[in-house]
Every structure is written in structure tokens, then in C-alpha cells.
Amino acid sequence: TEAGCVYLSKALSLNPSHLRELHLSWNDIGDSGVTHLCSALEKVHCALETLKLDKCGITEKGCSALASALSSKTCCLTDLDLSINDLQDSGVKKLCVGLKNPHCTLEKLRLSKCKVTHEGVTALTEALKSNPSHLKELDLLENDLEETGLNVRKACELEMHDCNITEKGCAVLSAVLPSISNLRELDLSHNNLQDSGVEILCIGLKRSHYDFKTLLYVFNQTYKSIVRRSRGSDVCKPDLDFIVLPTAGLEDTKCRLESLNLKNCGVTEAGCDFLSSALSLNPSHLRELHLSWNNIGDSGVKHLCAALEKVHCALETLKLSTCKIKTEGFGSLASVLRSNSHLRELDLGNNRPGDQGAELLSAVLQHPNCRLKTLRLIYRNIVFEKVVK
């Protein structure tokens, strides 16, 4: 509780203090406890770098204390976990005061399940724009972000699964993908993106291959399509970010995304067609693609395989569990694995290969061109996980 934090604060203020990590998760320390810890973080002798405070009863007041600590020249904190606290947008705004400060050294910030909405994300965006931040990883899992301005340009990883994001959110994200030069991993799993959202996202993946006029035309047509489907809902009233970003993102920096997670996003064959086009680019930087729990079927697999056969496709990991893939799809995958594909890991769990599909895939593992190292397959209720040496 708060009393324990008083003792910890004194220990952290020692000269010298060797403690680098402190995990206090699931303790009811509250805002008062955080305030005591923050007083130590501002001391010159405190060397703490990692602080885990998830589910600690922290609110807006605690965020104010943390912002003050992050603004201190002597604070060494690089990893801060505030997940499962009732911060809300007001707390995030307080925290952003610290993130804006040039003395802030934070590299990882976790705000999962903190009741953050569009307003909070906007504040985070502005904070990271105004300061050449060290932040490399931002976790916003399970917040009600909906169609927020996802233009956070400094992070290396964005985790936004289960955040109620749809195609409009994809449009905003797509607009800035080429300008987020550091972004390597993007997790949008468990959002209702559908094929239309994937189509828009792929525009961002292919941005450097569009000329200016073509790009504006694609965005214009895509947005008109969204408006037609919305039938007068809020999506017909675009926010400022959506209007500005399609041109703001037109920079020379190319999208260098390496990992894309679209698990359980309502993707079908059509979405795979869009992804196939993006994977066929020269150059394509994508190394990992997660499409599990999407109804892509054999037709969707065919589209993906068409890209895997291309010389510029660099995909190494492909997750396709529970995708309703049958014998025909397994045949397509077996064929592409014989053609010098870069694939090293393939997850096909919980699909229906049939005897023929399973045999085709098993046989291709012996082919000299097959580079596959890890294969996961469930057939006849038996789980096969094979590591090829």
C-alpha cells in the first residue's frame, strides 16, 4: 500500500542505489503511493529504469506525479507500465506533460485497459510530435480508440488489438505509415477492419509506389466509399486529422513495416488480394503476417501464394490457423514452398487439409528448394509441430 511505497522511496534514494527494476503490479498503492515513488525518481542517486505499476489503483492525480518525475533531468526511467488503471483521457493528458519534456528518457509505455479514447490518443500524438522522444514501444491494447488519429510517428511497435478500430481508423493509419520511419511492428488483431480496412491499409504499405495524383484519387474514392456505407453516421463528418494526413504523409520516407498482425479482423479472399499486391512490391519489407481466425479460404491462400512466388516478397512467417483452408489451399502452399519462397515458419493449425493436402505438405518438406524451418498443423485431431533441421 502507500506505506510500503514510503519505505521503497527511501531505499531508492540511497547513495548509491543499485536497483534497476521495480515490480509493484496488483498492489493497491493508489495515487499517494505513486507520489512517494516519484519523489525518489527525481533524486540524483535513483537509478531505477523499469517500473511496473499495472492494476495499482492509479488515476489522474498519480499521472501528474509521474509527469513531474519524467520531466526531471535525473530520472532514468525507460520502461513504464500503467496498464489496468483508471487513467482515462484526463490522466493521459497529465502524463503527456512529461512525455513532451526533452529530459524524458522513456522508451516503453504501456497503457492497456486504461479507458483511453480518441481524446487521449490525440494528446499522445501531440506529445510525441513536439518532442524528439526516445519512445519505441507504445501499448494501447483494449482501449476504446475507435477511429482515432493513429498518427504516432516515433514508436517502433504499435499494439492496438481489440480497440474497436474499423476502416476509418485504417484510413488515418494508412495516411501516415510512410512517414513513421521507425515503425516495425503493427498489431491490429481483433478489430473489425474487414476487407475494406485492409484495402485502405495496403495503400499505406504501397505508398512510395504511388504518384501524387494517383494517391489522392485512391484516398478520395476510398473515403467516398466509406461515406456511402455509413449512411449518415459520424464517419460522414471527418475529423481534422483525416483531412490533413493524406497529404501530410506524402514524404520521401518509405514504409518499413516488418510485422503486421490482422488476426480475427474479418478478412476474406478480397483482403488477401490487397495484401498480395502489397507483398509483391519492390522492395517489400514485411517479414511476418498474422491472418489467423479469418475466413480467407482456399481462394485467399491462392492470392497470398501468388505474392510468395515473387522474387521481391520477403515474407518469412505466415500464420494461417483457423482460416477454413482445405485441400486446394494446401496444394497452393505446397507448390509455393517448392519455388524458393523465403518462408521459414508456417502455421496452418485448425484447418481441413484432408489426406491429400496433408500428404502434399509433408512431401514438400523434403524438396531441396523448401526453406521451411517450422510447420504447425492440426490433422485428425492430432497436433503436428515440426522443426526442420
Describe this structure in words.
By secondary structure, the protein is of the alpha/beta class. Helices cover 40% and strands 12% of the residues. A 13-stranded mixed β-sheet has the order 1-2-3-4-5-6-7-8-9-10-11-12-13, with no helix packed on it. α13 (354-364) links the parallel β11 and β12 (374-379). α1 packs parallel to α2 (30-41) and α6 (167-176) runs parallel beside α9. The longest helix is centred in the middle third of the chain and has 19 residues, at 212-230. Mean pLDDT is 78; it is low at 148-154 and 208-253. InterPro entries: Leu-rich_rpt, Leu-rich_rpt_Cys-con_subtyp, LRR_dom_sf, NLR. Keywords: Leucine-rich repeat, Repeat. It holds the Pfam family LRR_6.
Describe the secondary structure blueprint for this structure.
Layout: H1 2-12, E1 21-23, H2 30-41, E2 50-52, H3 60-70, E3 79-81, H4 88-100, E4 108-110, H5 118-130, E5 137-139, E6 157-159, H6 167-176, E7 185-187, H7 194-205, H8 212-230, H9 240-248, E8 259-261, H10 269-279, E9 288-290, H11 297-308, E10 317-319, H12 327-337, E11 345-348, H13 354-364, E12 374-379, E13 382-387
Parallel strand pairs: 1-2, 2-3, 3-4, 4-5, 5-6, 6-7, 7-8, 8-9, 9-10, 10-11, 11-12
Antiparallel strand pairs: 12-13
InterPro entries: Leu-rich_rpt, Leu-rich_rpt_Cys-con_subtyp, LRR_dom_sf, NLR
Pfam families: LRR_6 (PF13516)
Keywords: Leucine-rich repeat, Repeat
